[in-house]
Each structure stands twice: as C-alpha cells, then as structure tokens.
Prior knowledge:
Low-confidence stretches of chain B: none
Largest sheet of chain B: 6 strands, mixed
Number of domains of chain A: 3
Radius of gyration of chain B: 22 Å
Number of domains of chain B: 2
Strand content of chain A: 5-15%
Oligomer: heterotrimer
Number of strands of chain B: 15
Mean pLDDT of chain A: 80
CATH architecture of the largest domain in chain B: 3-Layer(aba) Sandwich
Number of helices of chain A: 17
Largest interface: A-C, 39 and 47 residues
Structural class of chain A: alpha+beta
Helix content of chain B: 25-40%
Order of helices and strands of chain B: EEEEHEEHEHHHEHEHEEHEEEHEH
Strand order of the largest sheet of chain B: 7-8-9-4-10-11
CATH superfamily of the largest domain in chain B: P-loop containing nucleotide triphosphate hydrolases
Structural class of chain B: alpha/beta
Number of helices of chain B: 10
Number of strands of chain A: 5
Shape of chain A: flat
Helix content of chain A: 55-70%
Amino acid sequence: MAIAAACAAATTADAQGTRADELRATRARLDRLTARWRVADSVLKAFDDSVGRSRAALDTVRAGNLRILVSKALRAEVEASARRRAGPLDTLLGTATARLTRHWIVVRQRNDSTLDTAVVAYVAKPGKAYPEGREIDVIWGPVADTLYGRGFRTAAMHLVWSDADNPVSRWLNAELNPDTTTAVAWTTVRLTLASDQTTAGHKCWNGDIDACKVMLRLVPLTDAPTQFFDSAGRRQHVERNTGLSDEPHRTNCLRGDDKACRALMAFEQWSVIPPNLLSGTVAQLAVRMGGSTALDRLIATQESPARALAITAGVPIDSVLRVWVRNARERRLPSEDMSAGIAAGSLMWILVCGVLAMRSSRWR
Amino acid sequence: MSHAIETRNLRCRVAKSFEISDLSMHVPHRAVYGFLGPNGSGKTTTIRLLLGLMKPTGGSVVVLGMPMPERHAEVLARTGYVPERLHLYPSLTVGEAIRFHRQFYSTWDQAWANELMKQMQLEGDRRVGVLSKGESGKLMMLLALSQRPDLLVLDEPTDGLDPVVRRDILAALVEYVTDREATVLISSHLVHELERICDWVGLMDKGRLVAEMPMLEFKTGLKRLRVASAPDSLSGAPFTLLVRDRGNGSVEQWLVRGWAPAMQTYLESVGASLREVIDLDLEEGFVEMLRASRQRTG
Amino acid sequence: MFSAILWSQWKATRALVLVVTVLVFAAPLFSLQVAYTAFSPVQFVSSMQSFGALYSIMAAVAGLLVALSAWRLDHAGHHVYALALPLSRARYAAYRFTAGLVFLLPIAVGLLIGCLLVAISGLIPDGLHAYPIALTLRFTLAALVAYAVFFAISAATNKTAGMIIGVIASLFFAQYLLNVFAGNTYDILEPTVNFIFVRPGILSVFAGRWMLVDA
C-alpha cells in the first residue's frame, strides 16, 4: 500500500512535473511571442505615427476612390490630374476600385534640391504581396501630368492587388495588370504555344483544352513526364537534351524503351517542363470576360486557380480556355503582313510624288 | 510667218544687277544671223529665252511661227542647238551619245551623221567626258546638224577652239546652210568669224539689243567723219549721227550710220566742211557702236 | 524615247543596283545565321525581329540611291540637255521616274531569292514560318516610296529642296527652343512623326515589324 501510495504519489508528482514543464515551455513561448508582438506593434505604431505626421504635413486630395496625400505646392495640379484619372480607373478596375479607400497614395518631392517628384503607394498592411514593407516606390520624374497619370494608375494596381492572398494570386506569381492584353502579349502567347516542344503544348495549340490546363498548371502536376509528353515526345525530349545523360536509361530510352525515358525524366522532373509564362494572359482574359466585378472576385476567391478563373469570368474554365486559344491563334501584331491599306497608301504617295516631280518649277 | 525668230519687248531678270530688257529681235527666214556682243552682254541668256530653257518675265517670243515656251517641244524638234558648254552626258561614248540623241528626232539622218563623224575624225568608242574642247564642240555640231533642223542656234560654237577645228565646224555649217536653206542664229564675240558667214547682225550690250541690221549695211554704212565748222544742231540729216566728238579744235569727229557720198551736199548746206571720210572695218564698227550705245545710256 | 532614257539611266545606275542587290540578297541569309544560334524559338523570332530595322533601312537607302542616280546625268549638265530635248518637261520627268522604278525590281528580286533560300533551308524551328513574299512586298513598296520621295525632291529646284530641309531643321530647332524655355511641356515632334509614320502617312510602310520568320 505504501509502495502503491508512493507510486501513486510519484506518478502524480511526475504528472505534475510534466505539466509544470509544459506550462513553463508554453509560458516561455508566450513571452517570446509577446515580445515580438510588442516590437511589431511599436514599428506599426511608429509607422502609423509617421503616416499620421505625413497626413498632418500634407494636404489630402480625394478623387473617386483615390486618396492622395500631396504637398501644398503640388496640390492643385495633382487634384486636377486625379479627378481626370478617377473615372478611367473605375472602368479599368471595376468594383475592385473600392479597395483603394483603404490605402494612401503619396505625391511628394523626392528631395529638396531637385524638381523631381515621386509617387509612392502605401499599402494598408504588409502581406504576402508586399512582404518587404508597406511603402512602394511607384514612379518619379519631372513634374508633369503624364507622371501623375502613370503614377496613379500603377499605384492603384499595386494597391488593389496587395489585398490578394489566395491560391490564384500564388498561381499567377506576379501582379495582374487588369488592362486588355496587348497585341505584343498575344504574340508572345502565340509564339510560345506554336513553338513549344512538349506534346501538351502542341495539343493545346491545336485546341485540346485538357492539354492547355496542363500547360497552364491548372491541374495538379503529379507526373510531369506523362502529363506533358507522349511516348514519342519523351524520346524526342531525351534526344534533344544531352543533359539527361544518366545511363543506361538514356541509351535504352533512345532505343525505344519508354519506361527508361520515364525513369530518366523523373530524375529531372522540374527541368523537363517549360516555365509557366502564360498565366497572366488567361487571368486578364477572365477579368475582361467577367465584367466590372470580375477583378474583385479574382482577388477575393479562395478557390483553386481553375475554379477562381471560372468564377472570375462567369463561365466554365473550358470556355475561358477556348477563347484564350482562339485569341492566341488569331491575334497578331497588326503590321507583320502587308495590309491592303498600307499598300494602297504607299501606291498613292508614289503617284503623288511622281506628279510633283513632273510639275516641278524647274521645268516650268 | 514673217521671221524665223521674233521677240517683242522681251524681259527677264537674271540677277540683281542684270536683266534682259525690252529686247525686240527679228531673225529673217533663211538668214544667217550673227549675234554679236561682248562677254556678259546677255547673248546666252537671250538664246535660252528663245529656246524655252528659261522663262521670260515679260514680252513675247515666237520661233518658227510658234509661241515659246508654250510649244517648246515642237520648236525644239525642228531646232538644232549647240550650247556654249558641253551639255551631253559625259559617261556615254560618242557612239552611244549619237544613238541616244537620234531617238528624239524623226528627221535624223544617220548617213550624214556617219559622214560627219568621218569628216570630223571622231571616234565612236571614246567617252564624251574625256573629249577635248574641240572634239566635244565637233560632236555637238554633228548632233545638231544630223537632226536636219530648220533652225540652228549656235552659242559661241568656236569659242576657245583652234583654227583647224573652227574651220571644220564652220565648213560643216556653211555646207548645211547652203544645202538646206535653214535659218541660223550664231552668237559670238569673234567679229571676223561672223563677218564671213552672216548676212544679218544683231548687236547686244548690257542686256539690250543695240542695233540690228543687214551685214552689208553694218560693214559699209558705218563711217567716221572729220567735220569742221559744223553747227550745234543738225536737223534733217540724211544719216544717223551716233557719236559726236567735239575735241579741242574746230574739227570734230563723228561716227555716222547710213552714210553715202552724196550726203556731203547736206553738210555744205549747213555750213560744215567735210575734211575726211574714214572707213571702219567690222571690228572697229562693233567697238564704235558699243561706245555710242554706252554713251547714250550713260 | 523612253527606251533611250531607260538605257542611259541604266548605264548610270547599273553598278549601284548590282551592289545593293547583292547586299539585300545576303541580308536574310545573314539574319538566319545569327538567329540560328538562339536557344529557343522565341529567341529565334526576337533575333529575326532585330533585323527588321535593317530591311527598312535598306529599302530607304535603295530608293534614295536609285533616285539620286536618276538625275545624276542631268544635274551634272545643269539640265540643259534635258531641257533642250524635243519633249515636254512632264513627259521627260515621267520617263526618268518610270525608269528608276524599273531598276528597283532587280533589288526586290534579290531580296526575294535570299528570303526563299531561308524559307527552304530547313533551319527554321518547328512552329515558326517564313514569310518571304510578305517581306519582299513590303520592302518593294518601301523602296518605291523612298525612291518617289527622293526623286521628287531631286527634280525640284535647289530652292525647293532647301525649303524642305529648312522646314525639317526648323521643327527640330523649334522643339529645342520649347524644351529650353517651356520645359518638356510641349512636344511638336511626336505628332509630326506620327503624321508621317502612321497610316496613311507617307512613310507608314516603313513602320511596324518587318518579319521574315514569325509564328
């Protein structure tokens, strides 16, 4: 009984000791976190204090959803410029423009000795988008309306996108420009797809939507050598890439052993597949298709990239990709071929110059 | 058509300090008209105005009955022109220049061109740009004559050429004129050369036509007179008094035009006494006419 | 008459046409040689695009040289011979103009042959295509436009040519003065350039991408 009591006491003591250890460890961790929080909070307060001081030193301009802090000397022209740009920004960003009211844009002189002016965007809170801090230098240069125009537009896009912290923003891995995809961008898509050396790339170019999903990483990549290539494609890839030199897999692969090709490519899986440079154009297209609230939906949704794009566009993802492939095939920079208009204009000018030469005053 | 070339009050300002003014010129058909004048008198400019190479600022030009420069293409089709300086393309050979030139003239006579080539000793494969002054002068004359033109306009065609070449060119010209009865306008400051071939003469000085008359009248009608006791005024004189040089004594020297021996009675009728009549050769007459003109215009 | 003018102008221009033809023939082959070292089709196309400016410059230079050559014989003699010929002035200028247009064709053919050799070389990456006809057409039109412009300027009197150069120089000088006294607020050069290079501007054929190989 004594032994049992001693054991029970020892067990209780042990249990109490373990709990105490756990408590001490937890308390220590809490202390560490509290200390870190205090440091972060003081930095935040200092920052907010500086923003507050800036606000006190600078004039505030409100135009649409833009909130701008500007030095008194520049106030009039900045206000005029902001009022002109507010409407077009609303059109560009749609309902996402409302997010701008949580942020500030600052227009200030870069330093006292020059005439250079800087436009700076302050994000509301640091996040995944801008982990390095809250202040983003947007643009600087001599005072001019064009500087403000570019500055407000770029700052607005930075600030709107700073709210995005979701699977689709990680899939994009870059800030999205919601503007219409340029002819240069479509040409890049066209070139990339047309010249892609993977089987998935060829199939996507020919309209296979599932292959496009692989190209765009809209499906999980569980087996890249199989998802990107067929057996003939795998052999050609190994043949082209002398870096895949592991023997005897290489020799057997080149002889036609597909298992050897798969094994060889599996070693270098992530070097096998091409980089995903095309996601931006798909996202831009989805935003265009989805109307004025599309960008907001894209930023807010927590769905997978494929589902997010469908929600953004308001149509199934397959439809988005079909339009995307069609645009890539059809849209080109306008002046690659000789257009009838340019040809006709040139012939007209040739005729005009000929007539002018015949009527030269030297002859009359 | 009364004249091959006719101008009325022709005007053209060439430079700030030089202009062709009120030029009224008449070149009769089938005449060989010598266009005389010192360097810089406006002969070349006048020729360019006649052929439509320059546009006048006033007046009118009619060549072969057609107004210029409106109908210059038709006129030039019937006109052979030899300019003062070589105007042909220097990179062509003599043969190529002939082949090029003949394609513009339906009246081209290739047989005669070949004959002239032999006569003037021109080699067909020599480049025009390397020809001497004499050879290029002969080539230009060959081209002009081979067109078989109705009008030949020659601007100082023998200037700077040696006597042998001058002779060749003038011989070809005379032969053509005799054969074809063409009209010729030939400009020069070499008076003696024109004396032999021209039957009309026009004298140009400082942009004006000073005198225009048949060559015979120019050669015989100009005289220098030594006259004594002449009155100040000579009304009703049957001759044209161009210059009156009173000198220091009582004997005056006169330059007159249109003199005839019978006019001595007029002098006697006004109380003057004719001491001497001096004949002038063409060159002296040319110089005296210029002097008279300059004295009149001041 | 036209054959006489054509032949005389050919004599003055043929050496130049030969040299330019050889150069434009070699340009596509040279561009292929440079682009072939690219490590991807996109790089290949970029490399080809960088030669686009070369084609437009060659077209302008070809037009300029043939135009100057057209009047060279007459300029040397102060146009006395031309003015003394029995044909109307307009007709003479028209013959000269047409003769020069003809001489640009061998140059265009040289380019076409060079481009076709590139197209059939088998060295173009998969997924890309050669456009020899389109490039040659654009080059030909550009050379013809350049020729026509310089021919007209060359046919004008010295006074007119001086006025044109004066206008261009004045534009640059005016922009310089505006920059000095009014900052960068006013830009008169950009609208002028747009007027010339954007359709239907006179040099619009020179603008844009000149691509022998593209997607």
